[in-house]
Description:
Elements: E1 2-6, H1 13-23, E2 29-32, E3 48-50, E4 64-69, E5 72-77, H2 89-98, E6 102-104, E7 111-116, E8 119-124, E9 137-144, E10 147-154, E11 159-166
Parallel strand pairs: 1-2, 2-3, 5-6, 6-8
Antiparallel strand pairs: 1-9, 4-5, 7-8, 9-10, 10-11
Amino acid sequence: MKILIISDTHGEKGVIKELNKKYNNTVAYSIHCGDSELKYDDPVINNYYIVKGNCDFFGKFEEDLHIKIKDLSIFITHGHRYNVKSHLYMLEEKAQSIGANIVCFGHSHLLGVEKINGILYINPGSLILPRGRKEGTYVILEENNNELNVQVYNETHELIKTLNYEK
Length: 167
């Protein structure tokens, strides 16, 4: 099972449309970690689990989502309410309190993947306004038996890195 994870697209529908077309038949779920700057009912994000970012003013997006997909418990947030530009402590506290084993967030536009105290944190970076690197990025999370594979891609869909973690 594969999950597409993006964030901080800031009104650029084209990049989302391109991803939707590319991964239409290969990902089971899609997550947007906020700052889409799109209307809640925009068809381009119709099949996404999506949260409200600090630049999302057009509708009723949830601040946070907690979803369960098979045996994965995923907490989705933009991150601005959890001070993610400074630390992950508040996210860890929230994830532990709800039993999440994966946290997807954005806000900083910085690509980051790490596992701390049994929780996998994924910030897919930004496809259009990356920080800390030249190319935009997104992530495909793949569950294989007892392993989580995190595949990082650039904006031209080239695989940059694959990281493997035990579930």
